[in-house]
Amino acid sequence: MKLRERELDQLAVDLQRFYHEQQRWPATEAEFGTFVTGQQPPKPEAGSESSAAITSSDQRAFRRRYGLDGPPPPFNPLGIILEVNFPEQACLAFKGETGLARVVNKPSN
C-alpha cells in the first residue's frame, strides 16, 4: 500500500508539472500517460482489414459472437483515472483501487 501511495504522490507531482508546462490539465489519461512515460498509443496493425477479408463467414461470426473484433481498450499506460472537475484542481487515482486518490491543485506561478 505504501508503494502505491508513493507512486500516486509522484504522479501528482507529474500532473502539476504537466500543468506548469502546458498551462492546462491533460484532456485524457492517455495524454497524461504519454507525458509521463513517453509511450505512444499503439498504431492499428497493418493489413488487419485484409486479413479479416480472408476469413470465412463462420470465422467472422465466431469472432463477432465472442467480441474478439471489438475496439481495443483505451490507451492508459499508467492505469489511472483522471478527473478534472474544476479549473483549479484535478483528481488522480489508480483504476480499481478504492480509497487511494490525490487531489492536485493548479500550481501557483
Blueprint (SSEs and pairs):
Elements: H1 2-22, H2 29-37, H3 48-54, H4 57-65, E1 80-86, E2 89-94, E3 101-105
Antiparallel strand pairs: 1-2, 2-3
Structure description:
This protein has four helices and three strands. With 109 residues, it is α+β, with helices and mostly antiparallel strands. A three-stranded antiparallel beta sheet has the order 1-2-3, covered by helices on one side. It is elongated. The mean pLDDT is 86.
How far from one another are the termini? 33 Å
| Domain module tally | 1
Helix content: 40-55%
Uncertain residue ranges: none
The radius of gyration is 19 Å
| Strand content range | 15-25%
Give the class from helix and strand content and strand pairing: alpha+beta
Continuous helix count:
4
Quick one: biggest sheet?
A: 3 strands, antiparallel
- Sequence of secondary-structure elements: HHHHEEE
Q: How do the strands of the widest beta sheet line up side by side? A: 1-2-3
What coarse outline follows from CA principal-axis ratios? elongated
The count of β-strands is 3
Nearest-integer average pLDDT: 86
Describe, in short, the structure shown:
This protein has 109 residues and is an alpha+beta fold. It has helices at residues 2-22, 29-37, 48-54, 57-65; strands spanning 80-86, 89-94, 101-105.
